[in-house]
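Deviation from plan, reported transparently: hypoxanthine complex.
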Amino acid sequence: MTIHIGAKPGEIAETVLMPGDPYRARWAAETFLEDATLVNEVRGMLGYTGTWRGHRVTIQGSGMGMPSLSIYVNELIRDYDAKTLIRIGSCGGMQPQVKLRDVILAMTASTLTNPSRGMFRELNFAPCADWGLLSAAHQAAAGRQVGVHVGGIYSSDVFYSERPDLDKEMVRHGILGVEMECAELYTLAARYGRRALAVLTVSDHLGTGEELPSEDRERSFGDMVEIALNAAFA
Ligand code: HPA
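Because the crystal trials were delayed, the predicted structure below was used instead.
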């Protein structure tokens, strides 16, 4: 047990999928895992461990934003020895070729600031995905009926941005989408020598203002979970 995770030693798998939303952790565990068991419910941040095609997997909510994700990822790595951590979440599309329901595999994550900023001081560390996971996810996505993009994303500290000028610069520099967790996940994985990737479903679009209708979300999120699971055990 840790401060934020109630699982007993051994109850967390080496491979952890991390949606922001704890209810999505429950949905993914019930939909994709066999023998899924609830291993954490501290603060309602649900975590489940089960098996997928014979491999042990934990699906643990991270909460929204980098400070929340940082707590769970630190404890999963330092106390439970998680080796592969894959964020499965939603993002806002930023480029015209990125459509609702498409999947983005985040190669890098830019930030204005993040929880590790104070530690790095003057260094602009470049958080990036694990190449083996990224490449495996790209192959897993290839056979599916879903648009896939690989490239840089933006991890923001705010959902409600007051910086249209910044959004414009990111679009100009090819940033594919915006979410709120990936950069800290990649930074912690680098610090502790673990594998990390973010597989993201485009749920809204900053350019067009479109949003995924809630009835479409499950099917679209399913692609993302299956891509993540295939990548983890490729
Ligand atoms: N901004 C930030 N985070 C997000 C968004 C967004 O538009 N959509 C999904 N996560």
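Residues 15-232 form a domain with the Rossmann fold fold (CATH 3.40.50.1580). We consider this an acceptable substitute for the interim report.
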